[in-house]
Amino acid sequence: MHHTHTHKRIPSREHHDWNIVERIAIVDNQEPLVAVPNESRLKQEPIYFKNQVPHAINLCAARASVIEKLREATTQLPEHLGIVVLDAWRSREVQQALQDQIGDVIKQTYPHLSADEQKAMLKQFVAPVGPDFVSPHLTGGSVDVTLFDLNTGAYLDMGSDFDEPTDKSFTTAYENQPEHVAHANRRTLYHAMLSVGFTNITSEWWHYDYGNQLWAHYSGRDYAVYGAAEQL
């Protein structure tokens, strides 16, 4: 059992600058995209398809090594928990649709912010879209994950909704609230994922990377091993 994880803090980190991240070299190792399996401790639920996001596909797929690392991460969890993948590889079309949707949510939720402030907030929660920009999910190296209880199938309370554009979504949001169930749950997920080589972005407790430019940035690598994976 690996309960020691829950005692370790999630470190605070600077939020990345996309302009720096996108300059990191990519040497694509040409690993194929593979569907996330449905096993006892690792499952997929394609949430964007379920929520009828335009162009979303009814499948979560990631690079082969990412699938292996997810399996490995499940072995680092308490025995009654598993990992569910909500989204992984994502086309440019879906990325644009998400930008539009979450941009609208931010406009409605934060009407007092200027257009520039709203744009800056959107950048924290959704990677930019551009013809030459390799967004993390386009590589098949990003996974959006949460924990579920093997006995009930229920997702654990992580203290904010997936894709919720608020401060509560920042990975360390509950670090100083040990009485909240999300405090331990986020630590459990974070340490299991980092122990097998994933990196996390500061603004999203659910988002983990391996092999792509964000991973290279957060882990201090010289180059990424996954570039754009155009289609399944």
Strand order of the largest sheet: 3-5-6-8-7
CATH domain class = Alpha Beta
Strand content: 5-15%
**Helix proportion of residues, in percent?**
25-40%
Number of domains: 1
Count of DSSP E strands? 9
The main β sheet shows up as: 5 strands, mixed
Q: Give the overall pLDDT as a whole number.
A: 93
- For the termini, the CA-CA separation is 37 Å
In N-to-C order, the SSE pattern is: HEEEHEHEHHEHEEHE
Low-pLDDT sequence parts: none
Secondary-structure class? alpha/beta
Q: How is the CATH topology named?
A: Muramoyl-pentapeptide Carboxypeptidase, domain 2
Number of helices: 7
CATH architecture: 2-Layer Sandwich
The value of Rg in angstroms is: 17 Å
Family: Belongs to the peptidase M15D family.
Active site: 204
EC number: 3.4.13.22
Protein name: D-alanyl-D-alanine dipeptidase
